[in-house]
UniProtKB/TrEMBL annotation:
Pathway: Lipid metabolism; fatty acid biosynthesis. The keyword ATP-binding does not apply. This is Very-long-chain 3-oxoacyl-CoA reductase. It catalyses: a very-long-chain (3R)-3-hydroxyacyl-CoA + NADP(+) = a very-long-chain 3-oxoacyl-CoA + NADPH + H(+). It comes from Paraglomus occultum. Keywords: Endoplasmic reticulum, Fatty acid biosynthesis, Fatty acid metabolism, Lipid biosynthesis, Lipid metabolism, Membrane, NADP, Oxidoreductase, Transmembrane, Transmembrane helix. GO terms for cellular component: endoplasmic reticulum membrane. The active site is at Y213 (proton acceptor). It is found in: Endoplasmic reticulum membrane. Component of the microsomal membrane bound fatty acid elongation system, which produces the 26-carbon very long-chain fatty acids (VLCFA) from palmitate. Catalyzes the reduction of the 3-ketoacyl-CoA intermediate that is formed in each cycle of fatty acid elongation. VLCFAs serve as precursors for ceramide and sphingolipids.
Amino acid sequence: MLSNEVAAILNENKLATVLVGLFSVVGALFIANKTLSFLNLLVDLYVRSGKSLQQFGAGKGAWAVITGASDGIGKEFAYQLAAAKFNILLISRTRSKLEILANEIEGKYGVQTQVYAMDFTKGDLQDYEKLKEVISRLDIGVLINNVATNHEIPTPFIMESEELINNIVEVNIAGTLRITKMVVYVMAAKHRGLILNIGSFAGYVPTPYLSVYSGSKAFLSTWSQALGAELKPKGITVQNVNTYFVVTGMSKIRRSNFLTPYPKPFVRAVLSKIGVPCGSEYPYTSAAYPSHGLANWLIANTFSWSWWEARNLESHIDIRKRALRKREREAAAAKSQ
């Protein structure tokens, strides 16, 4: 009887030892995997070089098409791609801004420029047909899908205006699809091209109170991955640029900080990391700016998605409250004048 009890205790001890050993191995593998993933991130951000712009026609007479080109990120892409010796087609709403930028680029970089003014919110098919004629005559090497519109302030979906919802869908989704399709025809004929879609962390982590914008950027992310797989055999590189805040008019941020660069270093990072994931776990996607890559990796490798979404909700409720108080102050000031 005693020997049976001793045998049972020994078996229990053996089982406990096996389980402890198993959990130790699993834990060690988990830690090793995370460590290797983080080291790979650092190599991507600070060591690896992306594809050369020469692969896409830089200095060989090719053109770069840039939407939302008159300000912010789009304007900086125009400068840096012109410096790389691409001819530049600038597309945005305000012709006067485009013409000033085009003259500056021609004088500074000695490349050709063209401008095309259109309001993407209108979704005017005649505008697109005329643009298609322009694009069909050019050797397009690069397309920067940068044009986008956002909510004025964080707003619950049920309270958002129909006009703003339609504008976001028309600009961020429909306009991007139409321009990309006409450019792909030209690129495929040359069997080379680069399509950069300027995405957002709002499309990476669902963002309450910016639900329509968040959904449009989530579409851009998934579409970029599907399109990238389709176009790779045709020699065309597609990359969704997962972007946190940048100092621009749309972000309403005026000062740079660790997570929020000015457009110049942001664009420089994007163009230097073509084809390099930089923290993104999705194919055909990059978080090229160093702090954005670090943030992307932390989101993917720390807390749950529901935790991050809850933090987004808290943050945007607070931003909405502050924005509404600012509007009230401005309205009161206007009445007192």
